[in-house]
């Protein structure tokens, strides 16, 4: 049950757990923080720092607590940003080695300077984290560096990174602590031979053989980085498909594209043993349904089997915050937990584990706190796999639409018929649009293309405003652009395309 109050007497804290019971807890003697805040945010990742800035912009006195000592969370420090830096750098190398000659650019030799590549990545991360600190100063957000944990629903004890401690008080406290790497039974991550995505972003040499456990967004992106740089990539996936959330038709084309790049897949396969006693790693695998075991060998194994909410050490049990069976914090439509004054956003609550979703959560949450109205529609959050080609989607897959029993139409347009794609000799992929048959309302859009992550936002806006495929088709698109393929797919959905 949530705490009803907290009182101090003679060095003790009286924690009132209910009307009929209480317990005495020795007070640790923390240095007291500043006056009470309107909002305290625990976690400085995309959800947390955006919530803190927005709260301050709305006139609320705000403090953000971050244990890492660098803002931006997993995404900026060891996730989205450094991975995109390496994806871009490795793509440039791959293009120079394999494609430049087709465009009349001839090089006598091309080589990888991995140290310089990593330095460029680290510089990008450093500049961006410092940039967020600058935004905190600009918006007058108080920043406390340390590990926060609840001592009451309105107080957070912080062990600061400089060895001190303090208590930060707030009328409204937002939990924005993100997620952590999901471990696999019997597989110990040492960030040397067996690495998480964090270790995969900091390898000091290019492995000859890399095994990726998990064929989701992160595994395929990191596999692409090291595959372009020369590693032989094998992806082991328990499920029958890669990226199970992806539209099946697009997924099949995507997998074929990755296989053409040299990526090997072992689907419906589970890892049952790991041996790191030698120079490399030996994985024992078997069919997911059971069967004969085989051994795979690699220099490095990347564990990319998903992520799990990070709430360890927050003291949620102490104040009575409810979670579900997989550790996600339960909230209502206002992002409020069952404990008055305590909220949660981002990866620690149900919904897509995506940085941009967390940002929207943060804005909506503080808008509610400020007496305004906020809203996030999780059915309209775009997702992107930043490989080459990229795959982006928003809305429902064809399989989901079928399961709903909705009559629908499908329009598709290949980039092989797009003039810009042909001109730059990069015409792999397609645009696929699903629309309700009777109303033409767009239900989902799926794009596989070099810049799918940019193209998808036209579709995201369309879904947000319940647009029809004809609405997109009748918008004038500049020529020649890749976005014309979106227009043509829309034309194919409600009528007929022009260029195919």
From TrEMBL:
Top-level EC class as recorded in UniProt: oxidoreductase
E.C. numbers: 1.6.2.6
Coiled coil: none
Residues engaged in binding NAD(+): 214-221, 237, 306
Reported cofactor(s): FAD
Compartment(s) of residence: Mitochondrion
Reactions mediated catalytically: 2 Fe(III)-[leghemoglobin] + NADH = 2 Fe(II)-[leghemoglobin] + NAD(+) + H(+); 2 Fe(III)-[leghemoglobin] + NADPH = 2 Fe(II)-[leghemoglobin] + NADP(+) + H(+)
Segments forming domain FAD/NAD(P)-binding: 38-362
Disulfide linkage: 75-80
Alphabetized SUPFAM superfamilies for the sequence: FAD/NAD(P)-binding domain, FAD/NAD-linked reductases, dimerisation (C-terminal) domain
Protein purpose: Reduces ferric leghemoglobin (Lb) to ferrous Lb.
Similarity comment: family membership: Belongs to the class-I pyridine nucleotide-disulfide oxidoreductase family.
Protein name: Leghemoglobin reductase
Source species of the chain: Flemingia macrophylla
């Amino acid at each position: 049950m949530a705490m009803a109050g907290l009182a101090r007497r003679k060095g003790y804290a009286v924690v009132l757990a209910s009307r009929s019971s209480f317990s005495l807890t020795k007070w640790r003697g923390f240095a007291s923080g500043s006056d009470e805040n309107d909002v305290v945010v625990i976690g400085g990742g995309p959800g947390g720092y955006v919530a803190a800035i927005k709260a301050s912009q709305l006139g609320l006195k705000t403090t953000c607590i971050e244990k890492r000592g660098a803002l931006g969370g997993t995404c900026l420090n060891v996730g989205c940003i450094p991975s995109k830096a390496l994806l871009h750098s490795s793509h440039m190398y791959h293009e120079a080695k394999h494609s430049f000659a087709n465009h009349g650019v001839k090089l006598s030799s091309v080589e990888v300077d991995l140290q310089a590549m990593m330095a460029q990545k680290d510089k990008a991360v450093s500049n961006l984290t410092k940039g967020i600190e600058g935004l905190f100063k600009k918006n007058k957000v108080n920043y406390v560096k340390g590990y926060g944990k609840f001592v009451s629903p309105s107080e957070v004890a912080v062990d600061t990174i400089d060895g001190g401690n303090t208590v930060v008080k707030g009328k409204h406290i937002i939990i924005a602590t993100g997620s952590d790497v999901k471990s696999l039974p019997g597989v110990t991550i040492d960030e040397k031979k067996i690495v998480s995505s964090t270790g995969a972003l900091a390898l000091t040499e290019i492995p000859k053989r890399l095994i990726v456990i998990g064929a989701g967004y992160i595994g395929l992106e990191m596999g692409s980085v090291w595959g372009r740089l020369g590693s032989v990539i094998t992806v082991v996936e328990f499920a029958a498909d890669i990226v199970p959330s992806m539209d099946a038709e697009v997924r099949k084309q995507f997998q074929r594209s990755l296989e053409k790049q040299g990526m090997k897949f072992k689907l419906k396969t589970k890892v049952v043993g790991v041996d790191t006693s030698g120079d490399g790693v030996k994985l024992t695998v078997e069919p997911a349904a059971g069967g004969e075991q085989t051994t795979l060998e690699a220099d490095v194994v990347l564990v990319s089997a998903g992520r799990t909410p990070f709430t360890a050490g927050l003291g949620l049990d102490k104040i009575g915050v409810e979670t579900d069976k997989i550790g996600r914090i339960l909230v209502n439509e206002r992002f409020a937990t069952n404990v008055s004054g305590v909220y949660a956003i981002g990866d620690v609550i149900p919904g897509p584990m995506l940085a941009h979703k967390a940002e929207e959560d943060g804005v909506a949450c503080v808008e509610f706190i400020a007496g305004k109205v906020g809203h996030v529609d999780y059915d309209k959050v775009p997702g992107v796999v930043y490989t080459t080609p990229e795959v982006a989607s928003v809305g429902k897959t064809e399989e989901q639409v079928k399961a709903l029993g909705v009559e629908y139409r499908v329009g598709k347009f290949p980039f092989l018929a797009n003039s810009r794609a042909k001109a730059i000799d990069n015409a792999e992929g397609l645009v696929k649009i699903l629309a309700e048959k009777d109303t033409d309302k767009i239900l989902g859009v799926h794009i596989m293309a070099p810049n799918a992550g940019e193209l998808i936002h036209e579709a995201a806006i369309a879904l947000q405003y319940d647009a029809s495929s004809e609405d997109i088709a009748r918008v004038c698109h500049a020529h020649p652009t890749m976005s014309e393929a979106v227009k043509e797919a829309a034309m194919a959905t409600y009528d007929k395309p022009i260029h195919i």
